[in-house]
What we know:
57% of the residues lie in helices and 17% in strands. The protein has helices spanning 2-16, 34-39, 151-186, 189-209, 211-215, 229-247, 249-252, 254-274, 279-306, 313-334, 342-345, 347-440, 445-471, 479-493, 512-532, 572-583; strands at 18-27, 46-47, 61-70, 77-82, 89-94, 99-104, 119-124, 129-137, 146-150, 476-478, 500-505, 509-511, 541-549, 552-559, 587-591, 596-605, 608-609. Strands 2-1-3-8-5-6 form a six-stranded antiparallel sheet. A hairpin with a 2-residue loop joins strand 13 and strand 14 (552-559). Helix 3 (151-186) packs antiparallel against helix 4 (189-209), helix 4 packs antiparallel against helix 12 and helix 10 runs antiparallel to helix 12 (347-440).
Amino acid sequence: MRYxxxxxxxxxxxxxxxxxxxxxxxxxxxQLTINEIIKxxxxxxxxxxxxxxxxxxxxxxxxxxxxxxxxxxxxxxxxLEMQNxxxxxxxxxxxxxxFIHKYSSFLPFSHMSYQYPKIAIPLNLEEEKTILYLKVSxxxxxxxxxxxxxxxxxxxNVLDSTVFLAVYFSGMxxxxxxNFIFYLFSKERVFLIYVLFTGSVFLxxxxxxxxxxxxxxxxxxxxxxxxxxxxxxxxxxxxxxFCKEYLDTKNRTPKLDKAxxxxxxxxxxxxxxxFILSYKDSFIFLVLMNFLSLILMFITAFYHAFVIxxxxxxxxxxxxxxxxxxxxxxxxxxxxxxxxxxFTQYTPxxxxxxxxxxxxxxLASSYRKKQLALEKSRVKLAQINKNLEKIIEEKNKDLIxxxxxxxxxxxxxxxxxxxxxxRVKNNLQVILSFLSLQSKHCNKEEVKVxxxxxxxxxxxxxxxxxxxxxxxxxxxxxxxxxxxxxxxxNKLIFNDLNIDLxxxxxxxxxxxxxxxxxxxxxxxxxxxxCKHAFKGIDSPKIEISLQAIDKQYTLIVKDNGRGLSENSKxxxxxxxxxxxxxxxxxxxxxxxxxxxxxxxxxxxxxxxxNNEYLDSRR
Length: 618
């Protein structure tokens, strides 16, 4: 136990007895040599601390004088780390001006000491006092933070940093991969934007930490000259797009949406300028872009969280808060307000990881809410469909019942119509029988003629009802079939005349009323020709034609008889014909030059006789 206490005492004494003083001198003309630097007095130097170690953008060479006092000889191996120097050259000289080593970001990673992405200068401090001269030049903003480590402590820090960064980048990669797979399945654009945002953070941090140079492009140091600014721009641009898309600012806060769109376009404009302007000017625009973007996204998230009461905005608000806190802690560490350790060294990485993790949680929460809302909608829709199916089923039952009743009524009506037509036909047949019997027993020729004419007229109506019964149609009749059957009967009555009958009748459906009128007209005209036209005619001929053009029908009855004499009087048949033509609302004309020709024009449509039809000849 005593030896342990002694070992701890000497270790603490060794560490406490080590002091390091730093001074710097600016060579504005880049002409001073190491020998000229060694000759300069301490009064010509300025004291260098971490608070004044940023030299902004300068073309001058910075000479740094490092004085290390070591009173203890227990530990000899030390490491001088340049903690925030990534782009440029450092040449190391001893107190006699002897060149020790050169470190450059233009050399492959294999030239770096300890295989560490930051510049680490190994020191063997055997003397109580050691002086080193560092010649530093950089083409970017130069910040020179130095820390003196015992070699074992430094190697432990390197190992801890490597493990931490491995966990950090692995976690980021898993978040990118998980959300990209989720995007492929969900096809929601906000997941793709998140992947692009996190990917730009991933690449930015590869440059910032030097891990990209250490493990990815170690043999291509020229890639270091990109400085990662491009990815920092993309990081902010995709951050703005993600904030806009996730919070749906276009619909919820149009004014903030316009501000975000302006910042996005401004960021794209700065990216273009980046390839044109100098590094200094480009860096100024980058700082301006980052500042404006962070402020704008923070304000947007704050407004949505506390004014609109959108709970999902808390993820965005706390995410960017962690990132800002991480950057702030890093600045406090470099100005020595906070002690440097593994936590303070990587607060920007910790803040960014918490940032993207909260954003991923926000996406998961939003997606889960959408799925729950969708599921509720599905359940509600299923219930509505079920209710509709029930209503439709009930309506179908009612319709089926009504259809049955209608079918029954239609069947009953059809039966009644059939029965009615059958009885009308039978009654007409009885009348025909009476007329035929009366005609046979009548001795007066005039009365007998009248009875025969009445019989033919009744037969015209009876034939129509006979067709109705045969076809089972009680609303219409085939006019060609009806007229042909009617003419066959009349031709049989006047068979002794041996008439040459020619029929040309269009095939059409006529309503019962129109068919009845037309049948009686044809019956009268045929009978008149047979009775009066063929006295002294050896080869009697009758032509009957019915044609149609667009529901307008033309009936022509023509014979080769004697025609009408000038002194002929209008008989009963002629009066009946005119009355029937009037019922059809038609017009007629007749010729008696060479035989007799009677023409009737009328119109019948699907609704029946067209009572509005007028002709100029009427």
